[in-house]
């Protein structure tokens, strides 16, 4: 199918950066979810790859072919990128039957060597040497039959969208998107209009569809459960900046920063402020919850001093890149500045006292709820304000 590469892709309106210098590689046949809070830039990223939004700068390639390059002036229109887009509202034609809705995109194909093989798959002469042609009615029928069988809506061909349930309309929209044989399938929160039970069913359908079609899927959501269950890799974005791009369990178990740790997981991670240092054996000796002593041995032999050294180097490199960009003609300073993630620690008796500036002996422990065991003789005494005992 298709491998997608984004290099230094940026989209801004004035000084507002919706996406900032994004580098991303989506492998062939991957199922990628773009995850993040509302307004983080995930839909803008999707629309730029599809060609529905023009980047301010950068380079995008699909299957090795540049579809956008700000330096070379390349900007291939969406209909030439051979991508499918599944919208949140399905966008079905109400005056057309299910068959006509699915066949609509096929009837508009006029590509070099376009044809439908015996399996009902649309094929093209990518070299452009074959003459352009439109598909015949018989070819369109074969293609419609194939995709309707994939999404299991063959019995609804003569119905209109208003006569279908939400899940059935969703399947029609998927079939219509798959029919022209796109190299990449883009989905922008396609399950948000469905009820909870139907969302679970459609998640399974999308996973089956990904395996059966072999297509590259790029899926936008703010629902972490969808991202964790569907994706082969998660691209987590905040304020237009890529925070982490990894497999779901890696994002969950080894988050890059506090924002990622807090965003992924339900119930949310517990943050505990700590102070202390690492001894020569590698053990972290910390004080938590005012006066409780705790010791931790990081896995993999991690040394805090080495981590700080790498972090200092990365920050210096980031500042150097920023200074270099600032010297370019037409550079616009970012108005939606990145800020340090303000993690929340719930306290029974909270105060408005300002926190002192952290030092290199201050830490934040992230404890997932599933690792907490409550018992009458536990090592840490606490009071339960909500919930019920098991």
How would you sum up this structure, described in words?
The chain is of the alpha+beta class. It contains 9 helices and 17 strands. The chain has helices at 42-50, 98-107, 137-150, 166-178, 196-213, 224-230, 248-253, 258-263, 304-326, and strands at 4-13, 16-26, 31-35, 57-62, 65-69, 74-75, 83-86, 115-116, 122-123, 184-188, 216-221, 233-238, 241-246, 270-278, 284-288, 292-296, 362-367. The strands form 4 sheets. It has a 6-stranded mixed sheet, sandwiched between helices. The chain has a 5-stranded antiparallel sheet with strand order 2-1-4-5-6, with helices on one face. A 4-stranded antiparallel sheet has the order 16-15-14-17. Strand 5 (65-69) and strand 6 (74-75) form a beta hairpin. Helix 2 (98-107) packs across helix 3, helix 2 runs parallel beside helix 4 and helix 3 (137-150) packs across helix 4 (166-178). The chain is globular, with a radius of gyration of 25 Å. The two termini are 49 Å apart. The model has no long low-confidence stretch (mean pLDDT 87).
């Amino acid at each position: 199918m298709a491998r997608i590469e984004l290099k230094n892709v940026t989209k801004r309106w004035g000084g507002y950066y919706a996406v900032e210098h994004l580098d991303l590689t989506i492998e062939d046949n991957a199922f990628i979810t773009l995850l993040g809070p509302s307004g983080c830039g995930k839909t803008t990223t999707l629309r730029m790859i599809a060609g529905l939004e023009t980047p301010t700068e950068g380079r995008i390639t699909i299957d090795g072919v540049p579809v956008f390059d700000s330096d070379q002036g390349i900007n291939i229109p969406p209909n030439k990128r051979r991508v499918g887009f599944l919208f949140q509202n399905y966008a079905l034609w109400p005056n057309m039957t299910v068959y006509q809705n699915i066949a609509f995109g096929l009837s508009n194909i006029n590509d070099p060597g376009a044809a439908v093989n015996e399996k009902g798959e649309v094929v093209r002469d990518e070299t452009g040497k074959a003459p352009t042609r439109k598909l015949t009615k018989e070819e369109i029928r074969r293609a419609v039959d194939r995709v309707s069988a994939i999404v299991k809506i063959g019995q609804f061909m003569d119905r209109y969208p208003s006569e279908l349930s939400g899940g059935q309309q969703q399947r029609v929209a998927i079939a219509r998107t798959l029919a022209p044989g796109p190299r990449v399938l883009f989905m922008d929160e396609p399950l948000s209009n469905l009820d909870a039970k139907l969302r679970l069913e459609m998640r399974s359908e999308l996973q089956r569809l990904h395996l059966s079609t072999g297509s590259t899927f790029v899926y936008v959501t703010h629902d972490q459960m969808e991202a964790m269950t569907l994706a082969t890799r998660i691209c987590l974005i905040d304020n237009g900046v890529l925070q982490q791009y990894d497999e779901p369990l890696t994002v969950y178990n080894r988050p890059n920063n506090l924002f990622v740790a807090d965003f992924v997981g339900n119930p949310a991670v517990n943050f505990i402020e700590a102070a202390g240092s690492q001894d020569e054996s590698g053990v972290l000796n910390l004080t938590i919850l005012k006066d409780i002593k705790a010791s931790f041995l990081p896995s993999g032999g991690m040394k805090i001093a080495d981590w700080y050294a790498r972090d200092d180097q990365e920050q210096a490199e980031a500042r150097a890149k920023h200074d270099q960009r600032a010297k370019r003609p037409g550079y616009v300073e970012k108005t939606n500045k990145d800020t340090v993630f303000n993690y929340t620690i719930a306290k029974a008796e909270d105060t408005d006292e300002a926190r002192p500036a952290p030092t290199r002996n201050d830490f934040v422990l992230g404890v997932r709820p599933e690792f907490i065991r409550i018992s009458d003789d536990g090592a840490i005494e606490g009071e339960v304000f909500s919930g019920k005992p098991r």
